[in-house]
Specification:
Helices cover about 25% and strands about 25% of the residues. It has about 325 residues and is of the alpha/beta class. The protein folds into two domains: about 120 residues, no CATH class; about 170 residues, 3-Layer(aba) Sandwich (Rossmann fold), CATH 3.40.50.
């Protein structure tokens, strides 16, 4: 089933004893969505999801806090906490994105509702976030070297799969990397104020094993080094657009979807906004369309193999 333009899936269960969430929303890679809880197959769904746009907040609660046959103290406590949180929530500061890297990265940003501009010789502002990808040409690399002072002054940077030599040419402090195969990793849950908040180990699970430049030193490393933090610089060494999203490449397609959400979440933590059609759809009837959720929220139309619970129906 689908609700308010978001793709959801029904969890398989026998009975409802002890059930806490019946229908979970698949985490969208477009827009500023922050999962408070993860669940479902490969943790790609969320029963408690924040959506931020402009200066507003929508909190989607798919937890079964109502319609229970008996009083449930945990459900009542969760509902009270949600109401208090929404009441005191204040919008974060917003930033714009500047990109330096191969053209495919700019195309992916546009598809994920991120309006980025190329890095130029103009000085970066405090309300800008620099996104650094691989495949830079020489003029861009020269401009990137001039951003060191801006980074020292608090400028925020998201590094996506860049090599050690390229990164050390502009970072205030050097880092070290090692080329190693990355499949999966694990790390402890992150605090809400972390620049990596909302990203789970399953979001960087690589279903098409390959060697990546993983962080080895000079930063706070998570797991095997696919994620890391150095002050106001965040590293994510798995790149969404390097995976084939066609239906024939199911393993790469799933990796593309999950890593797309991870990178979009990291940008959201930096304050990079992205407009989606979700709010307008609250006031528009579906008019018989069952596919409008694809436009502006998800990057790929679903196929039968995208439903991880299909085998329960067999």
């Amino acid at each position: 089933m689908r609700w308010c333009g978001l793709e959801v899936t029904r969890l398989w269960r026998c009975g409802n004893w002890g059930n806490v969430a019946s229908v979970l929303i698949q985490k969208p890679p477009c827009g500023d969505f922050l999962p408070v809880l993860d669940g479902g197959y490969a943790l790609q769904y969320s029963p408690l999801l924040e959506f931020r746009e402009g200066r507003g907040l929508v909190l989607f609660c798919q937890m079964d806090v109502t319609a229970r046959t008996e009083n449930e103290p945990a459900a009542e406590a969760l509902l009270n906490n949600i109401i208090r949180f929404v009441n005191i929530w204040r919008p974060p500061s917003r930033c714009t994105a500047v990109y330096a890297g191969e053209p495919a990265g700019m195309s992916w940003l546009a598809s994920s509702a991120v309006q980025a501009v190329p890095l130029t010789s103009e000085p970066l502002a405090a309300d800008q976030v620099l996104i650094v990808g691989p495949g830079m040409d020489e003029p861009t690399w020269a401009r990137l070297k001039a951003t060191t002072v801006w980074i020292k002054a608090g400028g925020r940077v998201l590094v996506l799969g860049a090599e050690q030599e390229d990164v050390n040419s502009f970072l205030p402090a050097p880092i070290t990397m090692q080329s190693a195969e990355h499949i999966a990793t694990s790390f402890a849950p992150l605090t809400p104020d972390s620049p990596l908040a909302g990203v789970a180990p399953a979001d960087v699970h690589n279903r098409d094993p390959r060697k990546l430049p993983l962080l080895a030193g000079g930063a706070t490393i998570l797991g095997d080094g696919v994620l890391a933090i150095q002050g106001n610089v965040v590293f994510c060494q798995i790149i969404p657009w390097h995976f084939d999203a066609s239906p024939e490449k199911f393993n790469q397609r799933r990796t593309f979807e999950r890593t797309s959400f991870a990178v979009r979440r990291l940008l959201g933590n930096f304050g990079v906004a992205g407009r989606t059609p979700l709010l307008e759809r609250f006031g528009q009837p579906a008019s018989g369309s069952t596919n409008r959720y694809i436009d502006g929220l998800y990057l790929n139309p679903p196929t039968e193999w995208d439903d991880p619970y299909r085998f329960f129906r067999w």
